[in-house]
Design goal:
Largest sheet: 5 strands, antiparallel
Shape: elongated
Radius of gyration: 36 Å
Structural class: alpha+beta
Number of domains: 3
Distance between the termini: 105 Å
């Protein structure tokens, strides 16, 4: 790849990065990025108090962070008003991070956002936040350029001057960083990570120049300057300083042997002296305030530690999250990508690691077409190794140290390592094609992260202009005065099974826009009135609180409710719903109800029930059979006893109508002497919900009158319509219609 072509591609990558970064920053509501509200509060403290903040006990803030990023943010936004900060940060979502490990849109929002305070054209807090976000984006662009420059130096050294391949792979390394969704996300946030990434990338670039071209006073001084800036930026910058120091140590000794120690001391003194001159005062201040130079002890005391720290097992379990969040887990970890994305990233990482091992073996055996050196690569590879080791050590103590973005300070080395490792699987001629392949693949991932993951997490639910635009599966008419009217609802899947998540979509016609943010609740009850699950959430799963509702619109609000695996089925589900204010009363309907019941919704059994007891073969109507019954008594029955037994119905075709079961105990003549009429399963599974393949165990009871004379009686059963009272035609196994459409079950002997 020619030098001109490489530059053109690099500029295109940077421009695409800036465009995507702006899109990420606009789509991501303010203060939804990790610690963004605390970081912005630090900046406002500098503006308003004109001094550095102090980390106080029991007050979790970012006051312990070095000040450089916050000073730059303050210089950029000192003129921006700050009247609405409290109004924004006080509207927290109490249901935030529900099942945070799941991809999707369920209460991913930390705040209940108000577009009147946050939408474009930006003003007040929103303006200040976006200005600083875009400053962070520019820092990210600088990091990408440094990644390219560092990768070109490293790969040129490895390939022994093959600049075409080096430029192509350097472009690939730049694309790997520029279109990393997590890099885009954090670079479009109010966060000191972008500046830490920039300063660290600059340090690693200078260290690479020292290793490749030699150690000079100018390079040592530049490195010292950057180390000092790193001290004033973020402690994660310290993670790459051992590698920078190792570069200053290695190159003079490699060039001059023992005589190089004099250069090591001289150049190291220049770098260390400048670093302390620029950043040493920060360590001194921390020592005076907190009794140690980094403020980490005070930070740990304020933010807390693991219960059993150090916990190596817990830290090891979180390595998967560390890897995944290196590529993209938005928010505070509650907005992940689908699992296959991380599996592909792991595969790419394993291929890169395998390629690096292959590179080393080929180099050792002399089976390469080039005569480059791996020495610089070996020294620089210590940066991600040290960063990972230190981060893992922190993870054993803190549960908030497992974010992959903490490794971004090593991107200037990590990205070239990926590019080199992947390239090793290709022939020399084909390696130039790796750059566009990486760029296209990562660009696709970045766009998907924006439109397929981040945007839906904060987008309001579907809204329609009028009730005529929707066709609910189940119509309804429930009015909450001053708020909305429920015009219907849908359920999915249809039918649900035990262990499924029942998704209920409620269609609300908005009547008025309230000032309050009402909480919506839905509860699901199953067989015997047992509560199977429920949800409390702000509408839109936190994305569209009631204070944002607009009169006249229709909102399709889907609420998922997980159902337990052991839920009894088949059965009818009842849905109870309503609104309430946090720490306040429930909102009544126009009819004065504070809880509205909807349904029934059919819960299907995963496996059909097997009938037990005495087999039977009777048909009722066209689609129902009585296939067995199981009496729960033996021997004679006495007056005052209760007959208990179970009928087993099989459904061959959906009845579509409600039927009741009649159970009659009759003598030789006359009306029934006892009966036990009622819906199947005591109303838990009415016949209009039955479907083909159902087998229903229907427990029945008949109370024997205490004054019933002794004798033999007959127990008869059947079905009749609730709408007309007519009995369903009953037939025996031969197809003969039974007298009075009654099925004879058994003779019952009554004794004194």
């Amino acid at each position: 790849m020619s030098k001109r072509r490489a530059r053109q591609l690099l500029y295109i990558i940077v421009l695409l990065y800036l465009g995507l970064g702006v899109a990420y920053s606009v789509v991501n509501p303010i203060f939804e990025s990790p610690d963004e509200a605390l970081n912005y509060d630090n900046i406002r403290y500098l503006i308003e108090e004109r001094r550095l903040p102090v980390l106080e006990p029991d007050e979790p803030t970012k006051a312990h962070h070095p000040p450089l990023y916050y000073v730059l943010g303050a210089l950029l936004t000192f003129w921006v008003p700050n009247e609405h900060l409290d109004a924004i940060v006080e509207r927290t979502n109490p249901f935030w991070a529900y099942r945070l490990w799941e991809p999707g849109v369920d209460n991913k929002s930390l705040y209940l956002h108000d577009p009147t305070l946050e939408s474009f054209p930006y003003r007040d807090v929103a303006l200040g936040v976006h200005l600083i976000r875009w400053l962070s984006l520019l820092m990210g662009a600088g990091t990408i350029l440094l990644v390219y420059a560092t990768a070109r130096e490293i790969i040129t050294a490895v390939y022994g001057g093959r600049n075409d391949s080096a430029r192509a792979l350097a472009v690939g390394a730049a694309a790997l960083v520029a279109f990393n969704p997590m890099f885009l996300y954090i670079s479009g946030s109010v966060h000191d990570d972008p500046l830490a990434n920039l300063v660290s990338a600059a340090m690693l670039y200078v260290a690479t120049r020292i290793l490749v071209h030699g150690a000079t006073v100018r390079r040592a001084a530049t490195l010292g300057l950057l180390m000092g800036l790193g001290v004033l930026t973020k402690l994660t910058c310290l993670l790459v300083m051992p590698t920078a120091g190792l570069a200053l140590l290695y190159r003079p000794l490699a060039d001059r042997g023992r005589a190089g120690w004099r250069d090591v001391v001289r150049l190291g003194g220049v770098a260390l002296g400048l670093a302390l001159l620029i950043g040493g005062w920060w360590f001194a201040r921390n020592w005076v305030l907190y009794g140690e130079p980094t403020a980490m002890v005070r930070q740990t005391g304020v933010w807390g530690v693991r219960e059993n720290a150090p916990d190596f097992v817990a830290a090891a379990r979180e390595l998967g999250f560390l890897h995944n969040s290196l590529w993209g887990i938005f928010g505070y970890g509650q907005i992940p990508f689908p699992r296959p994305i991380y599996d592909l990233a792991r595969l790419m990482g394993l291929m890169a690691l395998g390629g690096l091992l292959l590179l080393y073996v080929r180099h050792r055996l002399g089976r390469t077409a080039w005569r480059g050196s791996l020495s610089a690569l070996g020294v620089l590879a210590t940066a991600p190794i040290i960063a990972l080791a230190v981060n893992f050590a922190r993870m054993t103590i803190s549960a908030a140290a497992d974010f992959g973005r903490y490794l971004f300070v090593t991107l200037a080395i990590l990205a070239p390592l990926y590019a080199l490792g992947l390239a090793e699987w290709l022939s020399v001629r084909r390696r130039t094609a790796l750059a566009p392949a990486i760029a296209l693949g990562m660009l696709t991932l970045a766009v998907y992260g924006l439109v397929g993951v981040l945007a839906p997490a904060y987008a309001p639910p579907p809204r329609y202009a009028s009730p005529d635009a929707v066709s609910p599966q189940y119509p309804a008419d429930v009015t909450y005065p001053g708020l909305a009217r429920l015009i219907g609802y849908d359920t999915a899947p249809d039918p649900p099974y035990p262990g499924d998540t029942l998704r209920v979509t409620f269609y609300w016609e908005v009547l008025d826009r309230p000032d309050e943010d009402y909480v919506f609740f839905v509860q699901v009850f199953g067989r015997g009135g047992v509560k199977l699950g429920g949800r409390d959430t702000h509408p839109g799963l936190g994305r569209y609180p009631t204070s944002r509702w607009q009169p006249g619109e229709v909102i399709a609000d889907t609420v998922p409710v997980p159902l337990p695996e052991d839920a009894a089925a088949p059965t009818a589900l009842r849905l109870d719903l309503g609104f309430y204010l946090l720490d306040g009363p429930r909102l009544p309907t126009a009819d004065g109800l504070t809880t509205v019941s909807l349904g029934p919704v059919r819960l299907a059994a995963r496996e059909p029930m097997s009938p037990v007891g005495a087999p039977l073969d009777y048909r009722l109507g066209e689609g129902i059979r009585l296939v067995a019954w199981e009496p729960a008594w033996e021997g004679p029955i006495h007056p005052g006893d209760t007959l208990r037994f179970t009928l087993y119905w099989a459904c061959d075709a959906p009845p579509g109508r409600p039927f009741n079961v009649f159970v009659h105990l009759i003598g030789e003549e006359g009306p029934p002497v006892a009966q036990g009429d009622g819906p199947p399963m005591e109303g838990d599974y009415p016949t209009h919900l039955w479907t083909t393949g159902d087998v229903i165990a229907d427990p029945r009871t008949v109370h024997i009158p205490p004054d019933l004379p002794s004798g033999r009686y007959r127990l008869l059963v059947g079905l009749y319509s609730l709408e007309t009272g007519e009995r369903l035609p009953a037939f025996d196994a031969g197809g003969t219609r039974l007298l009075n459409d009654t099925i004879p079950l058994s003779d019952v002997e009554i004794r004194p």
